Amino acid sequence: MYLVSSCLAGVNCRYNGSNSENKVIKEWVKEGKAIAICPELIAGLPTPRPCCEIVINKSGNKKIAAKEGQDFTKEFIEGAEKALEIAKIIGIKKAILQSKSPTCGYGIIYDGTFSGKLKEGNGLAAELFIKNGIEVYTENDLDKL
């Protein structure tokens, strides 16, 4: 069984109230081959909510911030930890997560300037999954599964 980002399964849980539906992933959820989870919702964040990116300050410290400056680091960490807890309970070995997201992004994320530019990196949940032995993929990697 896979753990997948809820937005990829068609759930309107993205920051702007939309989804990133992937028909294959949605079908896997319907067939019981995957479970859909949104770490941001698990943390209690509303939909819609401010658009956030991982921002690294001059000291090298990471925080999850909205363009307007609100700090959502605590909530994003809590959501990632809760998602990992669920994954461990179920025995998840592989996750398919929404690319570029500050929570779920894998390999490439937005650079923290809110300019649409990308950089190498992982979202908080993706990073936590990797550190705990869960293989992480994005919706762009389905051919590798």
From TrEMBL:
Domain of life: Bacteria
A Pfam family matched in the record: 2-thiour_desulf
Protein name: Purine-nucleoside phosphorylase
Organism, scientific name: Anaeromicrobium sediminis
